[in-house]
Specification:
Length: 192
Amino acid sequence: MILPIVAYGAAVLREVCPDITPDYPNLKQLIDNMWETMYASNGVGLAAPQINRPIRLFVVDSRQIIDNLEEGEKNEFPGDEGIKQVFINAHIVDTDGDDWAYNEGCLSIPKVREDVYRPEKVTLRYVDENFQPQEQTFHGVTARVIFHEYDHIEGKLFIDYLKPLKKRLIKSRLDDISKGKIRVDYKMIFPK
């Protein structure tokens, strides 16, 4: 089932989310719905707070980005094949490498894209959809998507990384989003 995306300004997007247990109600169905919602919204990642669930859960499909790169662009992310993966109870163990800019957007902040600097690599400890413990290091554009989704379960948004002047320049667009004065081709829930 395709779920509505929570728009910028909603309190749930600013919550630090707690871990969940394997008996979380209807978890498999929730994950299936998140995949369906993400693809229907043309996203490459989706975190549970974006569908109004304040829990440590997100899904990532960075293969879509890698598969759509031009041949020359693939050299920018050597060894990054992309992933399609579920992350539950994720916690960052380490980050590494130089910060680099990438133009990010967010389903909860439609029609706003800005360059954000993040490290090249991230190591995460998490459990998969079968609650099997994992620890893995990701790099390139895959790390970028993971950082972005991880921020959602920490109550952060990509716009938090922008310089004050840039934030002032997009303030009116953010206000329009929070008031529902925006048209998108997917269902959204706007703050009251």
